[in-house]
Design goal:
The chain is of the alpha+beta class and about 200 residues long. The longest helix has 16 residues. β6 and β7 form a beta hairpin. It contains 6 helices and 7 strands. It folds into 2 domains: about 100 residues, no CATH class; about 60 residues, no CATH class. Strands 1-3-5-4-2 form a 5-stranded antiparallel sheet. α1 runs antiparallel to α2 and α3 runs antiparallel to α4.
């Protein structure tokens, strides 16, 4: 369920996405033909590169077009973008064993405001957990480049609307990544070490 992101021109996205089995399944950019889609994305982006998202379900799982579009909208929300105000389109492929889609996301709103697509590892890790949770898939421990386990407590964004909840989330993220407490006493000790305050 991890979203893979690259950046390319509207022309290259259309050339890659519009295979014989491809099907436009939704979004806020409307087009009937490949040429229409290329022109619409180029106009919306002002000729700049767009974000190319690839989202795949685990092999053996499937879903309908509406759910795939909801997954894309959720991914955009989790990256701080408004799906209704952002030009995007999703294309579904059936040429591999796993069901997947490709989405083009313009890096500015319909009104022309620039909205760079954020791709940090921490953000991508968090979004993957949120998407897996949303479709009922199990979460799994993270691993850093050195191979040592990195425990990241899942915390859905919808439950972090208050400033206090947001502070608690960020402090616990730091502690579990760097300290990985084994019990409550260890956690309390880590809280006193200066990772941040939650009061």
């Amino acid at each position: 369920m991890r979203t893979y992101v690259t950046f390319l021109t509207p022309e290259k996205f259309v050339a890659y996405g519009q295979r014989p089995d491809a099907k436009i399944i939704g979004g806020t950019v409307f087009a009937e033909t490949s040429d229409d889609l290329k022109k619409a994305l180029a106009t919306a982006s002002g000729g700049a590169e767009i974000a190319h998202l690839t989202i795949s379900l685990p092999e053996g799982l499937t879903t309908d077009d509406e759910m795939f579009c909801r997954i894309v909208a959720t991914e955009l929300k989790n990256r701080g973008l408004n799906p209704a105000a952002t030009p995007w389109v999703a294309v579904r492929h059936h040429d591999t064993k796993c069901h997947h889609i490709h989405a083009a996301v313009v890096q500015r709103t319909w009104s022309g405001r620039s909205i760079p697509f954020r791709t940090s590892k921490d953000l991508s890790d968090r979004n993957e957990d949120l998407l897996r949770e949303a479709v009922g898939l199990p979460l799994f421990p993270r691993f850093n480049e050195s191979g040592s386990p990195q425990l990241v407590p899942p915390s859905p964004g919808r439950r972090r609307k208050s400033e206090l909840a947001s502070r608690v989330y960020h402090v616990l993220q730091k502690i579990f990544r760097h300290e990985q407490p084994q019990d409550i006493e260890h956690l309390q000790s880590a809280l006193k070490m200066g990772w941040g305050t939650v009061s």
